[in-house]
Specification:
Two copies of one chain form a homodimer. In chain A, strand 2 (53-58) and strand 3 (64-68) form a beta hairpin. Chain A is mostly helical. Chain A has a three-stranded antiparallel sheet with strand order 1-3-2. Helix content of chain A is 62%, strand content 7%. Chain A has helices at residues 2-13, 18-29, 37-49, 70-82, 92-97, 105-135, 142-169, and strands at residues 16-17, 53-58, 64-68. The structure holds a DNA duplex.
DNA sequence: GAGCGCATGTAAAGGGTTACATGATTCT
DNA sequence: AGAATCATGTAACCCTTTACATGCGCTC
């Protein structure tokens, strides 16, 4: 359901095509809400069918730009205000942690080093966006202010994971003796 | 794919039934990797068909406990060591942040307060588990040490989100004038 | 005119949730 | 006896991903 409102939200900033939306999703929201183009196009067609968006213009390579309708605006705002937040997370890195005891200690160490690196990099990317925004590179409309807040979440989230991986690397973790696997 | 290995990983600690696994998933991994019982039972049957687990015993209410096979152990370990981590996140709370500018400021403030509360609570829950573990309540086998590490991720992740929501609450956010929606 | 990037889709398969269904055992 | 809990499953649906397909327009 969220992709639907993500699209409406982006269209609330102004008209865009499916292609545009796919790019912007990838760039700005890709790491907190991935969306592939087939889903986007499908959803746009459904939204148009329901009258929440409409074709604003048709361009060169059969490009169709959509505009949000008043009904569409009402719909996103309703979602933001009335729908309760789905707090579901699904983080493979943390799932794996529950099974670290099955790993060879050397493998684990290497694994955590690479994880820390990845997360630190992701945090740095968000930080880069944040400083550019704070410098005023993208103007200072309410939309970019919101993106700045979202970026802050990215920074803190990935930094937390990077710190965690760093911390975990230094945790002592006994390797299972033969008795620890498969018996109680 | 991950549920598969999550089940194998849990079964590496010792035999369990689908019901047990569903409960343990819910309790320990529910907030980083949700899994409903229909999926679990289905996956267990597939795993058994592939010889990665086998029925260890049949109990009272047609309970079937499974045991991991040597092939199953090889399979989880292979996943942990060789498969690259899927770092995909999907966090609705952060997606919503990109659209805060569409919200009524009073609604937004209330929203962020409730978010902060939720995340702080989740962090506290994990912290509760962590102190119990550090007290030695669950023994100190390598399995619980791994769970301790996973719990630490939960603490840091949710604390980061709680801090973020708290921070966001104090960010100035201009409401869009009539010109900001649907134009440009 | 060759190749790249724009632009939109379809089809198939996978992963996950929700609702429904059922029966056995234990507890009060 | 009735209620709660244990225990397993099926069916339908929804969401998402991956692979395939196609054609236009711009640039070199």
């Amino acid at each position: 359901m969220s992709l639907r409102f993500g699209l409406l939200g982006l269209l609330a900033e102004g008209p865009a095509s499916g292609y545009d939306l796919a790019r912007r999703f990838q760039e700005m929201l890709g790491s907190v809400w991935p969306a592939q183009h087939p889903k986007i196009y499908a959803e746009l067609n459904r939204l148009a069918g329901e009258g929440l968006i409409e074709v604003e213009s048709e361009g060169p390579r059969r490009r169709k730009a959509y505009r949000i309708t008043p009904a569409g605006l009402v719909s996103v705002r309703g979602w933001l205000a009335d729908t309760e937040v789905d707090h579901t997370l699904r983080i493979q890195s943390v799932l794996r942690a529950a099974f670290f005891w099955l790993m060879d200690p050397a493998d684990l160490r290497r694994h955590l080093e690479r994880e820390a690196e990845f997360f630190a990099r992701a945090a740095a990317d968000y930080r880069g966006y944040a400083v550019a925004k704070d410098r005023g590179d993208f103007g200072s409309g309410p939309q970019t202010q919101s993106l700045r807040i979202a970026a802050e979440a990215g920074i803190r989230l990935y930094q937390a994971l990077a710190d965690w991986a760093e911390w975990a690397k230094d945790q002592p973790l006994a390797t299972p003796g033969p008795g620890d696997v498969k018996e109680t």
